[in-house]
Design brief:
It is built from 4 helices and 10 strands. It is of the alpha/beta class.
Length: 172
């Protein structure tokens, strides 16, 4: 199964503020530019996320991934779980084996940094698409939180957007 870590990050490597918030992304969201999101989202079969990212998504007016099956990695239970969402307490490798048995081919690792680090440590991320935004946060949730790994990646594409966003695509 292909796993894409498609994410926005500050120039200093944070994917969320210290409180988990993403309000700092708002100035870069425009009606004229989706940074390839629609095409990317159309090409995935499943959504994967950690519990903190899940809790952030629950704050939205609508569940943003209603048309895709979603797996939340957590040992906790949640009061509210939208339809199509499965909460599981498994390792990334175990979960991917289960997804592959459902004939799913490509998953989006939405976040967060700890879950991404655990996927990366097991060599399970096949593609990194990182949109670096021209902002420094100084603190927050790291891109790969707690990762102490070394992996050579191959740059496949680089796009500079008028907003100053630089999107880099790497394969593992």
């Amino acid at each position: 199964m292909d796993v894409s870590y498609y994410i926005a990050a500050s120039l200093d490597g944070y994917i969320a503020a210290a409180d988990g918030g993403t309000a700092w992304l708002k100035p870069f969201e425009t009606a004229h530019e989706d940074y390839g999101y629609a095409a990317f989202y159309a090409g995935i079969d499943a959504v994967l996320m950690g519990s903190c990212t899940f809790e952030q998504c629950l704050r939205y007016e609508r569940w943003p991934y209603a048309d895709k099956p979603c797996w939340v990695f957590s040992s906790r239970t949640f009061e509210r779980v939208p339809p199509g969402v499965t909460v599981l307490n498994q390792s990334p490798a175990q979960a991917l084996a289960a997804l592959e048995s459902r004939w799913l081919k490509r998953a989006w690792l939405v976040g967060g940094g700890k879950l991404a680090a655990s996927f990366a440590a097991q060599g399970l991320i096949t593609e990194y698409v990182i949109s670096y935004l021209p902002i420094l946060l100084g603190e927050g949730v790291p891109l790969l939180d707690g990762a102490s790994l070394r992996e050579a990646l191959t740059l496949v594409d680089a796009k500079r957007h008028a907003s100053g966003v630089m999107q880099l695509r790497y394969t593992a």
